Amino acid sequence: SKLQTRTKLAALLLRKNSAIREKLAKLYTKIDFEGGDTFRIFEVNKYIKIILDEKVMEESRKLFNEMEIVDVEKGLGELTIIYGIDITKTPGVFALIANELAASNISIIDSMICHSEHLIILKEGDLQKGFNVVFGLTAGKNI
């Protein structure tokens, strides 16, 4: 597997409704993916959280009114594990990594597995420690 990190990320937690989705579509067109901008969307039953670069947070935040914004969090980092296989078919990988991070007193802010990629959002201050934990699990192993 390969490990990658990103720093200087922020999260915007929004109430889930149709107006938010329309505004997210507008925001999506402003993200410079070719330039390396980060834009992650986590959607659950009542909320939508977007993770993006801190440098575009304030401009992005202006698209939403105060009633739509539940929380704003800065100082986040992303740890990405890129596996050589579709990891969704291997039971226990998510649990193993989550348990090892917890044992090292690292809280996962958000996480998602999609095919062969595993994204883990952490506090930026925990990123190096989290990297070391995951590196220790993956070094020389087939995960």
Based on CA atoms alone, the radius of gyration comes out at 16 Å
Order of helices and strands: EHEEHEHEEH
Distance between the termini: 6 Å
Number of strands: 6
Count the DSSP helices. 4
pLDDT averaged residue by residue: 92
Largest sheet: 6 strands, antiparallel
Which strand order spans the largest sheet, edge to edge or round the barrel?
A: 2-3-1-4-6-5
* Helical residues, percent: 25-40%
Note the beta-strand portion. Answer: 35-45%
Class computed from helices, strands and strand pairing: alpha+beta
Mind sketching the topology for me?
Blueprint: E1 2-15, H1 18-30, E2 39-43, E3 47-53, H2 57-61, E4 69-82, H3 93-103, E5 110-114, E6 117-123, H4 127-138
Notes on the structure:
With 143 residues, this protein is α+β, with helices and mostly antiparallel strands. The protein has helices spanning 18-30, 57-61, 93-103, 127-138, and strands spanning 2-15, 39-43, 47-53, 69-82, 110-114, 117-123. A hairpin with a 2-residue loop joins strand 5 and strand 6. The N and C termini lie close together (6 Å).
Can you give keywords for this protein?
single chain, 143 residues, alpha+beta, six-stranded antiparallel beta sheet, 29% helix, 36% strand
What's the short version?
By secondary structure, this protein is an alpha+beta fold.
